[in-house]
Amino acid sequence: MNLLLFACWHARQRGFFDGELLENALSFSSLWADNVVKPLRGTRTWMKSNEDTLWERACLRLRADQTPPDAEKFDKLRQQIKSLELQSEQFQQNVLESLAVNLPQNQPQDLSLEVRLSAAASNLRDIVEASAVPLNEVVVQSLSSLILHAFDLTENSGILQTIHNELARPSA
Asked: In the chain, what is the greatest distance between 2 CA atoms, to the nearest angstrom?
């Protein structure tokens, strides 16, 4: 999701991705997600989905004179892991922004809305293709909706046609 948001942000501020930026963003994001975000999310969701089983097993092993596990401490730990997960995603967003800002050829530009919309669709298409996600009608509709929201636009046929045309165009 961070890459999709980054694609829209970049289109609004700077326009189309260049090859170097796209490659760097994909490379960093893949490593970061695989080694930081996904393990944290996996731990948090595992704890959530197995909470009852964990307590049941822990309580079965207790003697009558022992205190059962502290559910509040367990929940607090899960919330701390969730906080770390969110912080790791914010860190990814900061790195992606740095990658864009630090490229001399990638300075903010005064672009027309049509160019920025085309850039957003193109940037998103590049991310989706690199992720090996098929660009079917459901994906196109989702990406179109994301662009409309990212640009604070209401749905209209002209804007949607611009977005759909760019999404359907083969990558350069």
From this structure: 73
